Amino acid sequence: MITKRKHSKEVVLKDNQKIVDVARSSSTFPRNDDDDGDGNSKRGRGVNTINDNEASTTSPLSSSTSSSAPAQNPPTKYVNEIVLNQQRHVGKEETDEDENTLPTILIASPMRQREHTIQRYFDLIEGLDYPKDKLSWAVLVGDSTDRTEEILTKKFRTLTDFRKVMVVKKDFNFEVKEHRRHEEHMQHERRSFLAQIRNSLIVSALTDEEWVLWIDSDVFSFEPNMLKRLLEVRKDIVVPHIVMPNGRTYDLNSWKETDASRAMQKKLRAKDVLVEGYHGLETYRKHMGDFSGVEELDGVGGAVLLVRGEAHRRGLIFPPFPFQHQLETEALGKMAREMGYVPYGTTDIKVIHK
């Protein structure tokens, strides 16, 4: 990655704190990075597998002739603009001895069109029961036509107690109406773009942090001790139970294969993609609502997702192309297993999503 910094400034604060503010920089990335994102479905179970002819007319949930880029005609260059990269350097004497043993965390969130709900997101992150000097916080905002970027950047400039804060802007020119983003025919293309924007955020923001906590910007609520409890599960990849206010499972992307689901997949072509939460074929998988306590998983959702940083640094990505019949976060779960990292879910930790 080649980064051109236009200018930078350093502000020295009391008690050996420094803020390095790289005001604006830009870099050019190859074709398969980008877009913005939120959580996923709250519908009933089911999947669609669509043949090549259907894919051209009805739905992108399909087997594609290419295993890489989505179907849209994107620009030839994708520009990653680092709007804000603000780092805090803390002397040892400032860190509490008990807290010093806690690992460093990168909180990573894709964001789009969040002007009217962004304050709730700020409150949730700032309300985490975790030392701020152990938290890096990065948001990639893209394809927003409201004041999301302006509000986000202004807010992040005030966060002098976090280890690092970063705002990345990356427009992918992918447009979908908010009320249509969960429609069945949108999912292949949408999930491919979400995968690319998550991967772009990894490239831009992850440095030496020991863990990455993925949090979607439209999550409604979670307990302040959520992060510490996820770490206490002591697994390389962990998801909590994402539920609706009535307690029913919201995110069906966290699941475990069964003998029946594996048998069904043997009949699929390599390019066929399965999507949970739509009426159609039964996948025969077990979802978070079928478990109690900590359970080994195969696919994971991304509303809240804890991943060991080492896994990402070793090449674990969110595949934007069909990988073992999955895309994005679910494909990450499959890829993680291939790399020796086993995903887990816990129903003991609940996150509310509306």
What does this structure look like?
The protein contains 8 helices and 13 strands. The protein has helices at residues 52-57, 118-126, 148-156, 187-205, 226-232, 259-265, 309-313, 328-339, and strands at residues 4-12, 18-29, 78-88, 105-111, 135-141, 164-169, 211-215, 237-243, 255-256, 286-287, 294-296, 304-308, 343-352. Strand 5, helix 3 and strand 6 (164-169) form a beta-alpha-beta unit. The longest helix is centred in the middle third of the chain and has 19 residues, at 187-205. The model is unreliable at 1-78 (pLDDT under 50).
Report the oligomer: single chain
Low-confidence blocks of residues: 1-78
Molecular shape: globular
Overall helicity = 10-25%
How many helices in DSSP terms?
8
How far from one another are the termini? 38 Å
SSE class = alpha/beta
* Mean of pLDDT: 79
Q: How large is the radius of gyration? A: 20 Å
Side-by-side strand order of the widest sheet: 1-2-3-6-5-4-7-12-8-13-11
Order of SSEs = EEHEEHEHEHEHEEHEEEHHE
Based on DSSP secondary structure assignment, what is the total number of beta strands?
Answer: 13
Strand portion, in percent? 15-25%
Q: Specify the biggest β-sheet.
A: 11 strands, mixed
